From TrEMBL:
NCBIfam families named in the record: PhzF_family
Species, as recorded: Aliirhizobium smilacinae
GO cellular component, one term: cytoplasm
Name used for this protein in its record: PhzF family phenazine biosynthesis protein
GO molecular function (one): isomerase activity
Amino acid sequence: MPTVEFVTVDVFTAERFTGNPLAVITDARGLTTEQMQQIATEFGYSESTFVLPPEDSANSARVRIFTPTMEVPFAGHPNVGTAYVLGQNASIFGKPVGDNLRFEEAAGLVEVDLKREGGMVTATSIRAPRSLETGDTVAADLVAACASIDTAHVRTDPHEPIFASVGLGFVLAELDGLDALGRSRPNLSAFRQAATRHPGNGLGFSVFLYVRDPSRPDHIRARMFAPLDDVPEDPATGSASGALAAYLVANMPEADIRTRLTIEQGVEMGRRSVIELDIIKQQGKVTDVRISGRCVFVMRGSVEY
């Protein structure tokens, strides 16, 4: 029976069994889309990636990303983790590995920088493939129902809950404190109602809740719920973090700014993750969002199909 090799890594952490786990099928040639989905469902992680030769030889690889229920065009932690895994190799499909990679994905090209210590890759940084896009605002009471909290805890200043994306869309909602964030729990029935009211692009209704520390405005605590995608809670969501960072910087008064934000996620799950965001805004427009984090290997094996 044919087999494919896999590696799992914990992403946005340097400590095993924390961060966000990711399964990487390092050579997915021979797998059908259906088989990729079945394997991703079997792993049950928030995402699994499948690496294929690039369609354009100028790029490093083609990467397909699957949640337990569907393929998505882009996601943060899968790119960071996949780059970490591939960066340990001397070559990818016969092409030497340097310090920069480019992944072909449904959302566009994803540029990757590898960070090494003593010659070994310890962290990676990816550039979001799309500029900031915003969509509908979402009623505070709807977000509160999804999070099982009182509406009063959902802030509508400085912004109402809103759809935002730099490659994959999320509802961004600020809460009034860590207590409300800690008590939040996904309500599946409310999520179903929300998805009916906001069908969006067919990728479900995912909510990224966050709290800013007034004494440290560059440090954010967050949680992400996507129960309609069989991900009740995600330990680290790079794509949502990138969208939030871009949205916050876009709304700063400065027309030109370079800044860094740190988002801490997964604390309530016992899987603390640290996501670093570097954002550039020029002439009033966010032009660059980079998502960075450390990774650590956990398991290796093979899957029969």
